[in-house]
Amino acid sequence: MDRSLEILFYHFSNFIHKFDSLVMSKFNLFKIVFLAILFSIGIDSFGQSGFVMLGSKEYNVIDRLQIKLGKDSLFNFSDIKPYSRKQVTEQLEHVNQLAEEGKISLSKVDKYNIELCLKENFEYRKGYDSKDSTLNFSDVFTKNSLTHPAYIGVKRDDFSVYTTLHIDYTKGNDNNLTHRLYNNNRTISIRGFLNKNIGYYSYLFEHQEADPLYVNQFVRQYGAVPGEGFYNIFKQTGYDVFNARGGIMFKASKGIDVQFAYDKVFIGDGFRSLILSDFSNNFLFLKLNTRLWRFNYHQIYAELVQTHGFNGGTTYSSNYLYPKKYMAFHQLDVQATKWLTIGAFESVMFGRSNGFSLSYANPIIFYRAIERQEGSPDKVTIGLNLKANPFRKTQFYGQLIINEFSIDQLKQYSKGNFVNKQAIQLGAKMIDFLGVKNLDVQAETNIVRPFVYSHYDTVGSFTHYNQPLAHPLGANFKEYIGIIKYQPINKLQLQAKIIYYKQGLDSAGFNFGGNIFNLYTKNRPRENGFFIGSGILTTCMYTSFTATFELLPNLFFDANAIIRKFTKAGAADFNTNIFSFGMRLNIQRREFDF
Asked: How many C-beta atoms surround the C-beta of residue 438 within 10 A?
């Protein structure tokens, strides 16, 4: 308990220090942009009280409905997640209205899932009592506990606060370990409105976990627990993790939404994202979204943590300020037709001794042009993000990433020059597959060439807190994913997942472009001849099956089985068999699917 309090005060003081540095430092980007927007808030604008947690069941519901209403332009969610609770509620109520008018057919399971999602986001439902109201323990845990998610809270005029607990208690076995696997997560969350203009949310996580051996190997190699930041070794076999998320959000004007938070962001419609994923730790960012007619414009300005030292892969050094770097990102989505959305994006990763470079604060400019004016020290990435619903019950999606653009090398692509740093994702989703209601399938391919995401220094590499910001494998791989989801009855969900990939790893001190933490200027054996699989060839087949029963709203019981076969040239096969059982309340499953 004393150690937990010590960690709590450490993070609180660190937050105050960061906030002071951000808001009070002269010419700081966040100060200039954030305060300018804050003072521009109109008196009639309305805030938002949070976002749907990444990995939550709401995203499965949204995926199905996006495809089912593929040519309905009103049901056009952004490809930047997490989604706002307000947006989710408005669109789900729109679907209910279409169903009442006979314009769409919903299964019993669909109706059940939609209703639970609306109950989860109760403050935005039509008819929600806007007068003073109080939720108390007797209401939540008796009368409503069998049909509603458990929240307690209070609303007074324009101020509101709602809180709930999030619990995950899972145990399992890994055939490569003599000790048990476990995850013991206790989280508390709050959300609400400070007034009608500003909404807020916060999560405080504290958990211990003992992970599979292949995850432990990742931690030892990179000094980071996947998806987390600060950690300590727990009882020699596990990790003690303390983390937090939170932010405020408001509507700056009609069509412009703002979020200032310490959280995660996922960009894309696939199982993976090659642009920005939620695999790494939380980070501080300012996000602006502008929606005008058929255009959706996103901007993200973020502060990240560079690659930094750690003590033998077991714990981070104390009394050490981790070096910072920054990312600027913007993407323009165009709804070309009711069934096709095309997005073009550009991002730059950089570091400056005096903080954020204000040259990248311009929201309407090409970063590459500015980067050239700065002396070309930074890493600029451009690409496309696509989503199409051309056929009934089917969606196609994809991403294209270009780290460096050299016409001369593209003309000689077959030579495999290291400068050719491109990646591509292609995927498809089908709902009610083969006419079976609520049987959904997904297929996805990710191809990433060597040296994508790496740079000539650790500042420019596409990493954060010793973890990849996009794909967990880094680079130099081909990956094939198949997912089947089936919900035969309201409370039972089944999922099967198969992931196969082949990747080239570094060999005997030579850099073949798979490890994005290695500088591409060091230990590279040649200029040409780099293809996917160059280096030590490895293959992996990951298969999992999960059965989930929802006893009460947001109270889940899981049974999971994993078979992972990893082969590395010149080494013995590394096979993993995992079986686990768990109980969750208001939280997503903890998974290590790589």
From this structure: 21
